[in-house]
Amino acid sequence: MEVVSPSPLGFRLPLPPSPPQEVIDFEKQNIILSTYNVEEPESEPTRLYPLPPKPRQNKVLPEDLKTPDNFVERDPRLIRLTGIHPFNVEAPLSDLYDEGFLTTKDLHYVRNHGAVPRVEDSEILDWTFTVEGMVEKPVTLTLRDLIRDYEQVTYPITLVCAGNRRKEQNVVRKTKGFSWGAAGLSTALWTGVALPELLKRAVPKRGAKYVCFEGADKLPNGYYGTSVKLSWAMDPERGMMVSHMMNGEMLHPDHGKPLRIVIPGQIGGRSVKWLKRIIVTSAPSDNWYHIYDNRVLPTMIDPEQSADLPETWKDERYAIYDLNTNSAICYPAHDEKVPLTDGAHTYKLKGYAYAGAGKRVTRLEVTLDQGKTWVLADLTYPEDQYRLAPEGEMLYGGRLDVSSREACFCWCFWELDLPLSQLAGAKDVMIRAMDDSMMVQPRDMYWSVLGMMNNPWYRVVIHKEGQSLRFEHPTQPALIPGGWMERVKKEGGNITNGFWGDKMPGEEAVPAQEAAAKEIKMVDDKVTRSITASELRAHDGEDEPWFVVNGQVYDGTKFLEGHPGGAASIINAAGQDVSEEFLAIHSENAKAMMPAYHIGTLDTTSAADSLPTPPESCPQSPSLVFLQPKTWTRALLASKEAISSDTKIFTFTLSHPTQQVGLPVGQHLMIRLRDPVSREAIIRAYTPLSEGSDTGSLRVLVKIYRDTPTQKGGRMTQALDALPAGHAVEFKGPVGKFEYLGRGRCAVNGRERKVRRFVMVCGGSGITPVFAVLRAVVKDVQDQTRCLLLDGNRVEEDILLKKELDGMEREAGAAKCRVLHTLSRPADGWTGLTGRMNRELFEREVGRPAEERDTMVLICGPEGMEKAARESFLGMGWAEEDLLFF
Ligand SMILES: Nc1nc2c(c(=O)[nH]1)N[C@H]1C(S)=C(S)[C@@H](COP(=O)(O)O)O[C@H]1N2
Ligand SMILES: [Mo]
């Protein structure tokens, strides 16, 4: 049931459905009524300031149905910057500009670090949040309290993501952030309570210096949270507010429904959505997202280094608060063509500009000769029209009285008419804005590891094509190709030479080859075939499995036999775009093999016939079996138990207590973790300790390779180690070419083989797949297979699962299960074998293969050990097919 106020502007302002006595209650609370039953603003002639355009009625989009955001209605025009989920989007730049000063919820950019918290309309007035920490009077408030007990205000505010224009940085050099175009900003009328009012009532204590905000969105590293200075938060001129309405409607779920912080003049990242806590503190927020996001580190720190610099990340001097001055050209749009012959003599260039910290953009200049001479553009500040509203003016139930405020909270627009002949005579057009502290946008980019606050002169290249001009922006958002930056780079230009990649006299071009040196070539240049998505989909099975990496189609048929990861992983990829996974787990050698399997390029021109987007991971799957071969499934980290100085057992909770792990003996699963800022995936294969039939939880033993002063540690293992309990991790499987079916029956790449004996050779954490097979043999008293395990380590403490191994030997008897440990650096008192896993050891303990060829050697360990084992066994007369490397 909805109570909707009729509005010629098209605002739909539903009252939360509630029992009748609640409605009566509402009527008493005329503030709430006036908040959600907004009177018609346009009918009054005094309103000379802009009001938002009519919003659309959107639907839940099909691509969102498979994600946790499957209840959020969205506008299909928004460009997704990080795949399907989480939702990070900007509008096409022209559409954003065309909406005018105020952006509808339809086209407002969205930056969600994770899933959108779900709050029903009927619950919003009961939403609670706290003001706590260093305050005399901590309180818990409902949204109802906030509306009833506090004065409401309405301000126009532009939010800008610190990543706005980041794609340009990514083209120069990949940063740890995804590729925003120039539409990562939007303006709306926000209604709520001024933050100083709330804080004043809570009474900050002496020594309090910061205000932290925390949202309800639980993310990989905790709830989203950040902080700002208390002195700013208390300053009415700064305009910080707690807001529950945007453009006269309750907040859209993507924008923080039902309650958020809105901070004018600062980067969007400080405006916490789905607000649950306001905490007054003496120190800046220690929230992970406050420290590892929204910062500009010094330019010489590269992505690899940055991983090792916790103190640098925590340095508050690098945290971004106020926006820097920035601007963009919106018209001419990218790829816009302007005929030179249709009689028009001038072209109107148009765009936006903004300054941070309440500052004002005081000039915008345009150059057609790369900065030698400049022309002033006309600036308009629609925001100023709100300052003229009469005293006490109300809008959407909030006081819109900004007449006394000098600060600028919004973007402004610039325009310049230029003769077409001048444009035709120039190779490019560039702009720069200046603010009221005379700071002017720089000519050169300041590249930094997160790629934030990018604000060099905005440059549009002019191409003369016959009787028309074609304009080329620097980049296009996300992975959309186009823009002069990528083009010039591909042509071998050095786009950071200070001249936009133009060759300077005496400057050598960067050979294109060298520019792309580190990228392994995965295509066969002779292949010219174009393959449609339906053709690809017809090859989604085991005969002729085709798959896509980076837009290229590969036929895996000839590699089913030889694939070290087993045929199954190719078959599971069939018919899909597996770029991310492929690139994350394959070595440069493996990538170099790809041209041999390249058969064509995926045709992406026909939208109707597009590839199904890879399914998102399932948060909770009702199915009986946890591991799914084609989709990632999530499980929550329940606990970490240290079993040695560098090894931990990670326990994950499955979707329900009776859900089975579902992993055949000898096979592996894949674990995927994502960097929460860059969204980059890390994927590795592990053999869990849990058996396939175990239910409810999954245990994985992981040796953590920590960074040392001389050597980089493991990315995955350190990331896993840093995970807090409660964090979701994604799994997929099974994978692997070997399976132990029991009682001597093995399958290698699906082909069955009988063995009487296993020789197991392993080192370090290589024990885990071997252990799974050994355990299966020992557990089944009918299984007659004999096993010899050779386990090599450095010192006794390094031996993983020693107790379990010794226990199995005792239980089965040494005739069936013999375990030998050898140590390369034994301590005094060690009674087992000593020395490395080498030919001598293998000759002594294993020797030549038997006549019957009834033995398989299972090998898993560090690269050097595996190599020594291969050479030794082949040297002793063993055949390649008797050796199995996990
Ligand atoms: N709780 C929460 N608040 C958040 C974020 C988030 O992921 N979670 N993203 C931040 C960032 S980086 C930006 S730029 C703005 C974007 O606000 P919008 O999505 O309403 O445009 O929200 C900020 N507030
Ligand atoms: Mo952001």
Can you walk me through this structure?
The chain has 886 residues and is of the alpha+beta class. A hairpin with a 2-residue loop joins β39 (745-748) and β40. α20 (767-779) runs parallel beside α21 (802-812). The two termini are 60 Å apart. Bound molecules: the ligand Nc1nc2c(c(=O)[nH]1)N[C@H]1C(S)=C(S)[C@@H](COP(=O)(O)O)O[C@H]1N2 and molybdenum atom. Residues 108-113, 159, 161, 215, 217, 224, 254-255, 268-269, 271-274 line the site of ligand MTE. Residues 630-741 form the FAD-binding FR-type domain. Pfam families: Cyt-b5, FAD_binding_6, Mo-co_dimer, NAD_binding_1, Oxidored_molyb. It comes from Canariomyces notabilis. It catalyses: nitrite + NADP(+) + H2O = nitrate + NADPH + H(+).
